[in-house]
Design a protein that fits this description.
Elements (H helix, E strand, L loop, with lengths): L3 E6 L16 E5 L3 E4 L7 H7 L7 E5 L5 H4 L2 H8 L3 E5 L7 E7 L2 E6 L6 H6 L2 E5 L3 E3 L4 E4 L15 E4 L5 E3 L7 E6 L2 E6 L6 H12 L6 E5 L7 H13 L4 E5 L4 H11 L3 E3 L5 E3 L1
Parallel strand pairs: 3-4, 4-5, 5-8, 14-15, 15-16, 16-17
Antiparallel strand pairs: 1-2, 1-18, 2-3, 6-7, 6-11, 9-10, 10-13, 11-12, 13-14
Helix pairs in contact: 5-6
Amino acid sequence: MKTKITVVCENSIGTPFPLIGEHGLSVLIEADDTTLFDTGQGLGIIHNLKTLGKDINAIQRIILSHGHYDHTGGLLQVLQSINRNIDVYAHPDIFTNKVAIIPLGNQTLEAPIGVRASKEEYEKAGAVFKPISGLTAITQSIRAIAEINRPQSWQGFDERLKVKLSDGTIKDDIFNDDCSLVIDTESGPVVLLGCAHAGIVDILYDIAKQTGHKEFHAVIGGTHLESAPDTYVQKAIDTLKHFKVKKIGTSHCTGFKVACRMHQEFKESFVLATCGAVFEF
């Protein structure tokens, strides 16, 4: 059976449909049944699903890529619209207190960027949380991977992204909760990224090591290369070539400059995965 992947929420809109664009990501996966990967900020999720002709009640499960508001903000609305118990797969660290430390002249602003409600509130609305740890089977064709294997010296490129501990200490977010999907399709394995905070290079190599895949048919989603140095961007390009990726669809946190560079490198194999984009495999 064909697998259809539809971008429901994203920063920009690439179709004539009256969709709502927002800084965030949500993707619908339709195969034997229907899976929702992330829920955007919550500004457009319900409107966009309806506009794209999707039946919200057909969603059988929800997977969250990590605990930032722009990927989890619409969760409560989706749960309330479905109005029944539904499995929500996520790494337990999505509920850490995630903050951004933003420089403003001689001062800094501490902004909350985590999930917008408590675990108990989501459960009251119908969420049945299922933990993702390492490589986790979700369905017969979908596996999620978190706790990405990285070098001991690993450090994120976006220095603003932190976690705040219960004692008030602020530390770098190591993003153990950063989750990506590997989907078995008729065309071959497809990797679906949320934000790739753990690093697209490390994610692809870890998936390859744990699944045995030597090639990926497609890599789609947020790459978080906007704040990465040129050396890492080139390493990401080399990695995509190493795994002989035939379709590359970047979105959300990739950045305009890097998207242009990807297009130059991969030509017709590259596409912008904007709101409303549909991929079939």
